[in-house]
Specification:
2 domains, 222 residues, Tetracycline Repressor, domain 2, elongated
Amino acid sequence: MRARAGAVRAARPRTYLKAEDRRAQILGVAKHLFARRGYRVANVADICQAAHIGRGTLYQYFANKRAVLLALMEDLQARIERVLRARPKLDEVPGGARVPVELIVRFCRKRLREVLDAVFVDEPTFRLILRDARGLDGAVDQIIGLIDNLVLQALETDLQAAQAAGILRAGECRRMARYLIGGTEKLVLDALAQDAPIDLDTIVTEVVDLELFGILSKEVAR
């Protein structure tokens, strides 16, 4: 009896949270667990252990590990949408084509960084999406498609405003936006593959320089 009483005293005290707080706690634990170990390796038992809850508690909120992943992605989509919606609308480029090119470059970098900051508002989940979630199933890919479309629309709108101001040449903005996003995503994927920090400033600089000036040398471009 004494040994049993000692075991009870040594047990971790249970914590009681409101339903919304418990759900947020489970998602927060799962997010970092998936990002650290990988979605395919981590399991429900790992989540429960890290969150200090029983399986029954987790199943009150999520049917399985896939449901946890979908909830993480849905939350990320909602946050990206809120950030992009709050981003100042670019009805026109101040000064238009009369602005010095240095200011145009700085302005374009700022706008692209705003888009990337919206995407990276939750970097652990974004890393998970790019590294593990693509191609898992239709529901996952649908959410990824919605996130892609949010970013695509934001960039396309900026390109249209720049065209209207005479800064960018004529062209199909949707296609341009897809091209720029594809190149940006590749730079991010390379950083993830090397498990390196994602240097958004360098990515923004490279993408905008290629967008505005191409790859021809100044001598040839003349």
